[in-house]
């Protein structure tokens, strides 16, 4: 029976929340094991993404006390998406199914049961999506939902209100391993794999402790990364805008010529001319920025640098949790 479940939780400066997260996850695992839903060889994997606090020390201590807990230590900070991928790639060699969640307890641990049930029904990917955003501020809710809609409009296939809480089967993870992008956006890549998938909903909780690792600046950068990693539509829009401005310029040229020939040309219009120059200049800068974003991605992909380096993997595969 394919019932070995690994959980992967990226961690960056999570010393405040790890003791409680590990306690709740262990209780959940013990319930699932006793009910026969998952194997006693199942593990909980914390991925240390170059934390500056005691996160890795806590992970090591958890593993020493209880081999149910495993740990992956990256050689340096590589960002949430790369840390998550590192954990998934290590876990796929040991597990039949892998669930990824954040370590801050915002994702409802109770959704694990529903995900495992859907896995046994034949789904290789089970997305955890938020049922509502009532706890978010108006600004957070509007910008977050706008991000999903904009990404889909730009050609990126993402699941609405889904972050990185998901279950993936072993073969789905093997499919993910075939994607070699350095500019990583898992929310858009996973739907490309194409195996049977479904969605389960849950209510997202408040962060248990610590501070959010995604302030507005990082969220905007993440959104830009997602859109430009999944689609070339922004460049097409730049091209379309360039053609449109050519038509406008051509029309203005005809208008100016007719005005001159009919003797109606005057020295007025200075303000409109300056506004037009600034506007066109701004559009050109935006266009160059969009193109530069893609050129930069090509540059990084061409280097073929490793997305992460695992310094150590703590995992006792021979241990059976009782």
Number of DSSP-assigned strands? 8
Biggest beta-sheet profile: 8 strands, mixed
Bulk shape: elongated
CATH fold-type name of the largest domain: Spore Coat Polysaccharide Biosynthesis Protein SpsA, Chain A
**What is the domain total for the residues?**
2
CATH architecture descriptor name of the largest domain: Alpha-Beta Complex
Name the CATH superfamily classification of the largest domain: Spore Coat Polysaccharide Biosynthesis Protein SpsA, Chain A
Q: What pattern of helices and strands is seen along the backbone?
A: EHEHEHEHEHEHHEHHHE
Q: Which residue ranges are poorly predicted, with pLDDT under 50 across at least 5 consecutive positions?
A: none
**Quaternary structure annotation:** single chain
CATH C-level class of the largest domain: Alpha Beta
State the main characteristics.
322 residues, alpha/beta, Spore Coat Polysaccharide Biosynthesis Protein SpsA, Chain A, 8-stranded mixed β-sheet, 10 helices
């Amino acid at each position: 029976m394919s019932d070995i479940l690994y959980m992967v939780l990226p961690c960056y400066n999570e010393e405040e929340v790890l003791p409680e997260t590990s306690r709740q996850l262990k209780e959940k695992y013990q319930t699932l094991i006793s009910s026969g839903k998952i194997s006693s060889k199942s593990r909980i994997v914390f991925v240390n993404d170059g934390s500056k606090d005691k996160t890795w020390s806590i992970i090591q201590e958890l593993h020493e006390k209880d081999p149910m807990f495993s740990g992956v230590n990256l050689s340096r900070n590589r960002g949430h998406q790369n840390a998550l991928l590192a954990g998934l790639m290590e876990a796929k060699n040991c597990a039949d199914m892998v669930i990824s969640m954040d370590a801050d307890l915002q994702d409802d641990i109770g959704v694990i049961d529903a995900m495992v049930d859907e896995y046994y029904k034949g789904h290789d990917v089970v997305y955890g999506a938020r049922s509502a955003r009532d706890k978010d501020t108006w600004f957070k809710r509007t910008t977050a939902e706008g991000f999903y809609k904009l990404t889909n409009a730009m050609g990126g296939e993402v699941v609405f209100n889904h972050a990185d809480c998901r279950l993936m089967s072993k073969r789905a993870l093997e499919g993910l391993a075939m994607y070699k992008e350095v500019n990583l956006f898992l929310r858009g890549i996973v739907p490309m794999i194409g195996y049977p998938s479904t969605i389960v909903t849950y209510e997202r909780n408040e962060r248990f402790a610590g501070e959010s690792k995604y302030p507005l600046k990082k969220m905007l950068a993440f959104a830009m990364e997602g859109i430009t990693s999944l689609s070339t539509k922004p460049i097409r829009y730049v091209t379309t805008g360039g053609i449109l401005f050519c038509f406008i310029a051509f029309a203005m040229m005809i208008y100016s010529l007719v005005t001159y020939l009919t003797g109606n040309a005057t020295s007025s219009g200075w303000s409109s001319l300056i506004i037009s120059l600034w506007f066109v200049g701004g559009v050109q800068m935006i266009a160059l920025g969009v193109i530069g974003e893609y050129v930069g991605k090509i540059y990084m992909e061409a280097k073929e640098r490793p997305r992460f380096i695992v310094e150590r993997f703590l995992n006792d595969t021979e241990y059976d949790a009782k």
